[in-house]
Amino acid sequence: MPLHQGIHASALVRTFGSIRAVSDISLNIAPGTVTGILGPNGSGKSTTLRMLCGLVRPDSGTATVAGAALLGDGTAVRKVSTFAPGEIALYGEMKGGEHLEWLLRGRPQAAIDHSRAIAKQLGLPPDKKVHAYSHGMKRQLLFAAAMGPDVPVRILDEPTEGLDPAKRQEVLDLIAADAKAGNLVLLSSHHLSEVQAVCERLVFFHAGKIIADESPAKLVTRARRTVLIEYMTADEASLAQLVMRREIGEGSSNPTIADCVAADLEVHVTLLADDSRDFLVAFANLDAPASLAITIGRLSLTDLYRTVYGVSGL
Amino acid sequence: MKLSRSVRNSIFMGLGYLIALELMLVAAILFWPNFEENTGALKLLAAPIPMLKDMFAQLEAKGVSAYVLSQHFFKGCNVLGCAVAALIGSAAIAGEAHRGTMEILLMRPLSRRRILMERWLLGGAQITLPIFLTTLTVPLLLTQVDESITLGPLLLCAVHQSLFLLAIYSITFLLSTKGRAPLQIAFGMLVFAIFNFSIYMVKTVTHWSLFRLADMETFLDIYESGSLHTTYTLYFAAAIGACLLASLAVFERRVP
Fold first, then answer.
1. Is the entire prediction scored with pTM above 0.95?
2. Comparison of pLDDT for A286 and A101, the residue scoring more
3. What is the mean pLDDT of residues B81-110?
4. What is the CA radius of gyration of chain B?
5. Measured between CB atoms, which of B99, B100, B106 is closest to A55?
6. Which of A185, A197, A257, A266 is nearest to A227 (CA)?
7. Looking at chain A, which residue has its C-alpha nearest residue B248?
8. Taking residues A91-116, what's their average pLDDT?
9. Is B100 within 8 Å of A87 when comparing Cβ atoms?
10. Does the CB of B109 have a partner CB in chain A at under 8 Å?
11. Contacts of B130 (CB under 8 A, 6+ apart)
12. CATH for A221-308?
């Protein structure tokens, strides 16, 4: 992919005091795609997005957005991209339409007209003061401002947060249509199930690092192959036995165990099984004590993310 | 032409400041005949405070010009101007951070230098324009009490006053660029101004007060010589320039 298209970030690092918010992030994103960044709170998603639109300077690393290098205060990057922030704080005393214009200062009139059209499509009242807008309406106003300008890159921080299901779908449809028109959309979300339909690619963040980067289709396949076995232990002695077995299972003798979490008297074991035969082998390898109650189920995508990548908080 | 939100707000606040300054000026000038009549008695009353005594002695000697300079610049513009400079300067950037609107302010395709300079200039105009506009009305107001004054040197005094207030404003602006709590910054600057004004009145420490740079004596020098005070002007210009450069450097790297 040529450097003048898409987003290319290399080894981005940002610390706030003693906290390393983003650690060595590298990303290459092609134009005409929608990429989702997922992760729990504090995983570095928003800081990465803010760095990519020049709002926060990286401590080290380089990036180009649609050919504009991330330098200085990032004005060059913001000229070729738009950003919708995750945190909503607007000027309540302004009217919706007036605020939209304020948000688009420095953009051509066509961008304002297009944003107004999107705001109208979303049902936002332009003559109502923003302080009378609901949380979801304010979110949509920021979204309309980010979708209006004719730029090749849009960076959206949690664009569907706080929206009702119908509006959420409307917003996701607009995003998909924009990508179809050749633009790059990079968005963040807490909700895997929400964005998997619109994203071609999912990048998982945890503790400021990328821990997984794959397509939703691949992720679904992985989910289908993963089996969750739940053991309900009868007493503390058998819990201790299982925990011990887990330690043995994490070694090379039993590679199919992906994770095992023990809490109080419950033990959750996750197996990665490519097919039913593997699953049976894996199950046999567990050699569960007869005193345990066993439940077997398939993982949801969120469960998969939580168990396979060892991340909680989604 | 449609005015932007910040310009509209600035005009609104500037108008309030202009009206307050003008009202103070009108009241002071209309009081002049009474004051002139009672200067001797007032001088006696002020005798226990050496700084006030000196001031009244000068008022008696120089007449209406000293009175106008002390009432309009030393009292009116210094007191109101410092308060307005502290309020406008503190809210300029820290106000946005406090409200949480810093991110939407910075996410537009405008350079931070431009955003900062626009804010500084708007605030500076709000503080200084009312000084010039009210000063322009002085000759007209004086005709109401059968007095006159030369406008040229008076405008030079307005320039000096503006530079003094711009220096105070620029210091506040720098703190605002760095901080997130506008009320604390404004309160701190007001306490600083009050402290400086209080030590101005104490003869043994008066030379430490910032208001020595913009007191009746200084304005009289400018009015009588018909030229700006070079050293003070350089002080003000240096303070304004240094604070503005520091503000730019801080704002360039500020995290929303």
1. no
2. A101
3. 95
4. 20
5. B106
6. A257
7. A73
8. 95
9. yes
10. yes
11. B14, B17, B18, B21
12. 3.30.70.100
